[in-house]
Amino acid sequence: QDPARIQWLMLFIGAIMLSQVLLVLKKKQVEKVQAAEMNF
């Protein structure tokens, strides 16, 4: 087992998780904006 390879794998998984979280946050923000526009 190559330690560097494990490090890259962890980095890769971390990047995927981060992008997923950002997607969810962006989606929530868009929904919030749409709701505000409807109320306006």
Helix count?
1
Biggest sheet layout:
none
Shape: rod-shaped
Q: Average pLDDT across residues? A: 92
Gyration radius, rounded: 17 Å
Strand content: under 5%
Write the layout of secondary structure elements.
Layout: H1 3-39
Task: Note down, in words, how this protein is organized.
- The chain has 40 residues and is an all-alpha fold.
- It has one domain (1-40).
- The protein contains 1 helix and no strands.
- The protein has one helix at 3-39.
- The N and C termini lie far apart (58 Å).
Short account of what is shown:
By secondary structure, this protein is mainly alpha-helical.
Give keywords:
40 residues; mainly alpha; 1 helix; 92% helix; 0% strand; rod-shaped
